[in-house]
Amino acid sequence: MKIKLRKLLSNRVVNNFLVLFFAFLLLELIFRLIDQLPIFSIANIRILLGLSILALFLAYFLSFLPKIVNKIINLILVFILTIYGIAELGFHNFLGVYASVGTNTQLGAVTSYFGEFMSSFRWTFYLLVIPFFLLLFYYLFLHKRITLDLPKRKFGKFVVFVRTVPLFILALLGLLYYGTLKVSFMQDKLSSMTSYELFLRPTNASLVIRDFGFISYGLLDIKEYFWPGKVIHTIEIDPEDLQNSNQVSEHLMIDNEAWLKIIEEETDQELNSLNQYFISNNTTTINDYTGLFEGKNLIVIMVESANDILLNEEYYPNVARLLKNGYTFTNNYSPRNICSTGNNEMSGMISLYSINNNCTANVYQNNTYFESIFNLFNRAGYTTNSFHDYYDWYYDRSVIHKNMGSSDFYDATRLGLDFSYTYGAYDTWASDEELMEKYLEVIDELGEDEPFMSFITTVSTHQPYSSSSEFGDLYLDLFPEDYSLDLKRYMSKLKVVDNAIGILLDGLESRGILDDTVIVLYGDHYPYAIETEELNDALEYDASIDNNADQVPFIIYNSELEAQEFDQYTSYINLLPTIANLFNLDYDSRIYMGTDALSEEHESLVIFIDGSWKNEFAYNNASTGDIHYYTKNVYSDEEILAINTEVRLKLEMSSLAIRKNYFSYLEESLNSITTSE
Q1: CATH entry 3.40.50.150 includes domain 262-676
Q2: What average pLDDT does the structure give for the chain?
């Protein structure tokens, strides 16, 4: 019997499957090539199976629809995935992370820099449209023409497909896919998470996209948003060993016996995972810097979009004043995440890593933290407050800061700041110079009865940099002509910050309180939308490699300090415990993910939100599985796995603690035990 391939292809299920499978496969291939993800990897077996399951599932159910509707839906599906893939490439390029449905709360806020975001797209991103146009061409010109004669043989009645066959094939493919999640040869031996764990809790977008593909990540991300996977981590605790290991630390606020009693009575597995993790967490001891600033005032300044260009003494003399009487951490990072400003501000206040697939500060704004920077100083008798020269459009700071323990929050409206400095319908940033002037007025109102602790977040250096603006154009003539215009506009805005620092220093000095005040300055994230190659013109290192773009200033200043540089690796996660030790506050070092950066117990390590990490020896890229060494020292596989496990636990336990509002629970549980006794 003469059998034509056309007969097979004309079967609705087969045709739909082949069309969708090859479109999905080509999308994945182009995406991985553009984003420099591994092309030849054992994980590709899983990706192929996943695409087959998705294509066959859709093909089967779409086959019940009219042909023209079927074709239109196929085109729409491929088009949606194309737009989604381009958007993910854009987010990864712009923010350094992949997008998640968990960030939907910020969609309205990002309209202010949508043009800047779109202009950052590289032309290669648009290669993802190729599968869509190939599919369109196929439907218009080739769909009815492709035939192929098979050899003449009698097979009797030939049945190519019946309605039940796709379901059996789906079941078989599903079993094979499940096998890839479990079998040892499909696992990354250096990863602390198995493929199965990653499938159940797809919170690490970079690893999921690497091992499952961007299409599967999108589906798993939706699943995680509505039905999040549970995190269960158990540590066997020996009370005697715990007591002995903690005896050497003076930074223990929580009584072990009370905490162990909470663990014994707790039935919630996730809460007990957190109890077990934190009670056995590393502790720090007193050191030569303990109490150095005891009783002094504190001003923490988180500078919007500040990177190490701000440390150039030629252009920024007031920051140079901080450097001349300050401790400078030369390997400090503010790793990017999906909402870096609000999340990294929050991390600086509580020393927990934010959740990498949402705007954590906003989503969990009602959480309370008895161990936050504000509450430590509140208990020490300080007047605490916080300031930001914008209003609650991006982040609900009036709620967040209050629940963090700030006694008073001042936004741009309350301070009466001028918003006439505009360069677009949505781009209206106030002046950091005016912010500092208003801040000093608030300090005058406080009086001198109590020391004060303030947290200030600036805004004048916010993007965009590709558009003309008052602050961006104000100091263009100061910088070399061969710098790109975007870079010069950014540096011009940094000049406004530097002027603001000068106003603050002079104001404190004229009030006679400069010597009694400590200023801590750090950057929230690198300047988005400026290519790293452009930043390199003004930096002393290559920002395009090993996440160097995330390197930002970290300065601790007091007029009576002698300048000193520290080369250990740090991030915003170390801010709070370092300050707590310097001011000799009553705190428990176990309940922070960071350690005092000046202590002997400090682990020189920066953790990035995708699970990558960096220290003085190496940079481990979790997304690609590559490791780049800086010295002749090479880690064994066991050592890499140990660090990866530590990194995973810090990120997972931080996320779980925030999701469960753990520190509110811990405070209530401890108070309950104290009351009952």
Answers
A1: no
A2: 88
